[in-house]
């Protein structure tokens, strides 16, 4: 039987954690799904764990990707998926028992279903559930809304850039594969941060309605070896390769800005967030030993774009950063702030 939902799980160096997520999915009351675990060939431990899990249920498939990175894994999963809908949980997180069913109910078309007499259910193209963030078994952040909300794409796109509830996380959402296939949507394999937000932005431009269910169905687990944790300087020095990966966050912002050029309100919210994160990255450039590398870096083009955006600094630090970034855009030089010696 063809599955209704394809659950695509990228897996790399998580041999001990992957069984938790897979068994959470297998324990869902909603049963009409397949699980696609996407592996790298240089990770035999996770591959062995995935093979053992595949023995538990014939709905589990294990495939290998050709390129590195989570985007390549998700793209391979999209190519292999047979379901009408796609879900993208991370293999080292956990989900509630109703995760799949709640997502499906938020997006599934039903011409017969009515909320009240003579009021038909609104068909949507993107479904979202609430989530929380867990650090050492403690919830440190969570979505705050308490009601079901149906939005048009303009409303959602604004919220995508200014409300935590609709951040560009991929794992608390469900997508229609027909839209992904029709417009050949894929994750950008050259973007390592906000690649999921960029994908969502591209997808939503082809949606008429989006439904959010506040039920906390997804638990994002923070780990000391996560991509975010690796961004911290070690002994006051930041690895250039790490920073260059983070810089792709601005590449994602730049691409989303072009996508939203005809959507005035979402574009304004995006630009404010774009400038804020670009300033953070620009400040971190001072922790790299050889700053001469940045003279001809593509981030210099980003700096020129960012400093042309209308933005009101919230404090003296941001004002100084903007002035320094403007000088960098013109000269290619990264100088110390006055208060940093």
TrEMBL record:
Keywords: Glycosyltransferase, Transferase. Pfam families: Glycos_transf_2. One of its GO terms (molecular function) is glycosyltransferase activity. Residues 6-110 form the Glycosyltransferase 2-like domain. This is Glycosyltransferase. It comes from Candidatus Weimeria bifida. The lineage of its organism: Bacteria, Bacillati, Bacillota, Clostridia, Lachnospirales.
């Amino acid at each position: 039987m063809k599955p209704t939902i394809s659950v695509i799980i990228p897996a790399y160096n998580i041999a001990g954690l992957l069984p938790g997520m897979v068994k959470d999915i297998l324990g869902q009351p909603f049963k009409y799904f397949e699980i696609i675990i996407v592996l790298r060939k240089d990770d035999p431990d996770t591959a062995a764990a995935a093979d053992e899990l595949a023995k538990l249920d014939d709905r589990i498939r294990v495939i290998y990707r050709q390129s590195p990175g989570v985007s390549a894994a998700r793209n391979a999963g999209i190519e292999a998926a047979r379901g009408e809908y796609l879900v993208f949980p991370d293999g080292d997180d956990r989900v509630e028992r109703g995760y799949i069913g709640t997502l499906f109910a938020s997006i599934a078309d039903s011409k017969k279903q009515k909320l009240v007499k003579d009021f038909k259910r609104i068909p949507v193209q993107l479904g979202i559930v609430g989530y929380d963030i867990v650090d050492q078994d403690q919830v440190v952040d969570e979505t705050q809304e308490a009601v079901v909300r149906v939005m048009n794409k303009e409303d959602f796109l604004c919220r995508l850039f200014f409300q935590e509830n609709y951040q560009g996380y991929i794992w608390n959402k469900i997508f229609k594969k027909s839209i992904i296939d029709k417009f050949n949507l894929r994750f950008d394999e050259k973007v390592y941060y906000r690649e999921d937000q960029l994908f969502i932005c591209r997808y939503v431009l082809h949606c008429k309605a989006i439904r959010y269910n506040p039920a906390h169905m997804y638990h994002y687990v923070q780990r000391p070896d996560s991509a975010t944790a690796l961004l911290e300087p070690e002994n006051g020095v930041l690895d250039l390769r790490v920073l260059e990966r983070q810089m792709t966050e601005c590449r994602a912002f730049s691409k989303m800005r072009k996508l939203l050029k005809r959507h005035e309100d979402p574009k304004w919210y995006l630009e404010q967030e774009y400038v804020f994160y670009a300033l953070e990255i620009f400040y971190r450039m001072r922790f790299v030993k050889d700053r001469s590398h940045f003279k001809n870096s593509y981030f210099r083009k980003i700096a020129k774009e960012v400093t042309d955006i209308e933005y009101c600094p919230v404090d003296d630090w941001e004002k100084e950063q903007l002035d320094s970034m403007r000088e960098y855009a013109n000269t290619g030089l990264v100088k110390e702030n006055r208060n940093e010696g």
